[in-house]
Structure formats: structure tokens, C-alpha cells
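Backbone description:
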Amino acid sequence: MTARDWALLLILAALWGGSFFFIAVAVTELPTVTVVAARTTLAAAALGLYMRLTQLALPRDATTWRDFIVLGLLNNAIPFGLIVWSETHIASGLAAILNATTPLFTILVAHAATHDERLSTAKIVGVAIGLCGVAVMIGTDAVAQIGSAVLAQLASLGAALSYGCGITYARRLRHLPAVTLSTGQLFGSTLLMVPLALLSDRPWTLAMPGVAVVTSVLALALLSTAVAYVIYFRILTTAGATNASLVTFLNPIGALLLGIFVLGEHLALHHLAGMALIFAGLAAIDGRIFGVVRRAAA
């Protein structure tokens, strides 16, 4: 990964790190499917407007739209729904830890489905170190919850697996610009989620949500989805599926920094220890550190 890729990954982590907080606020007054449908619809509308203003156009062929819908299912509809539902039963910190298994699933799926992203010792070691770092950074209280609300935890793991499949599937569309791929995926997921929300939640019967919930949904859609997916697909195009999935290690750091600078929270020793482990895991996956060690030994 280049310095630009790492910078984009850090920005993406800040955007997606805040999504767990926005979701936790949104589900206090809105049902799961409605939150997901609102997230994808608003994000798709924002990116669609941007494409129109910049005179870009979505592909019209049926094959590409089939891929958009599959990608919307794997990258949005399934994981968004599972994560939002799981956060009604488990803490957002535990959900973030389980979501951080995404690189592990991505490595396994990419190894089976591609010829240029093979399984390696460095990747396995790096993922293990990074996952430990996420657990240490978030704290023992969240880790201690593992074993309770098993279905909700399995839902979070299912979301991570779906992301791994979606990241790998998106490789077939790498020829498209990042904004086009992001917009098409979000329109695909909107086509799936809006009818489901209308049937299951009947949103017109719900009470008008408060300002905090409306603000959280807007931030979730515009920042943590529309902008975030453009950055995400740009990383995927230049650095590959496994490297793009590493953002799930950095998401808790983004959430922590938002808490420190926005909510006035304090930085603790275990936060620093967790960050150190996460960065060590990322360095191991990047692989260059092993090359330095080999050259020094030689």
C-alpha cells in the first residue's frame, strides 16, 4: 500500500468508526429495516445527484446492474441489517470487535476466489495481532460480554463474512470509477431494502423521530455511507480486497478519536496498547517489515 492508500484508510476509519455511534442513536426510535433503508436511500440519492452535477452516468447494461444488486446485497443490505439488529442486543463496542473479523473472512474468501490474493503467514499473523489489538483497545468490559446474546454476536460475525464476500466480489467491477461503483451498489441495495421496509415496518405509521435520531441517520447516510464508500472502492481498486478490509481494525480508533475530540472522553493506557497492537498487525499484513528483517539477516 502507498502512503496515499494508508491516508485514505485512516479517513475511512474515521467515517466508519462513527457509524457504530450513529446506529446506536438511530435504533432508539427507528426499527432496523427502516434505518438500513433510510441509510442506503439517502446515500444513493446524494451520490446520484453528485453524478448528475458532474455529468457522469451509471452503466445501463443488465449484467452490470445484476452485479450492482449482488454487491448491494453483500456489502449493504445483509451486513447493515445484521449490524443494526445486533446493536439492539449487544453493545456497540462488542459489535466493533466482532466486525473486526472482516479481514480474516476476506483473506479466506479472497484465497479461494482469486489468484492474486493468496493466503500467507504474514496475513494470518497480522490479522490475529490486529484482532487482539481491537479487543484490548475497546476494553475488557466488551470482551467479557462474549458468550451472552449469542444470536446477536453471530449476526455481527455474519455481517463480517458478508463484507468479506462483498469486497472480493467487487473486484470484478474495478474497471468502474469509485463514485460510479459506490452509487450503483447503493442503488442496488436501495431497490432491495425500500420494499422490505415498506412491508415490514410501515414507516408512515411510526412517530416522528427526534432531532438526534434524524441527525444520526443523515450522518450515517451521507458521511458513513456515501463518502465512505467512494473512498473504500478507491482503496479496493489500488490496494486489493484484503487491504481494503483492514479498515475494520482502524474503525475503533476512529470512534475513539471522535469520542476524545467531540465528546470530551479521555485516552486510557489500554487504548494506547490496543492501538500499538493494531498498527503492529497492519505492519505485518503489509509485509514490508518482513522484507526489512530478511534483508538485515542476509
About this structure: The chain has one domain: 3-119+147-250. Residues 2 and 239 are 8 Å apart (CA to CA). The mean pLDDT is 83. The first helix runs from residue 3 to 17.
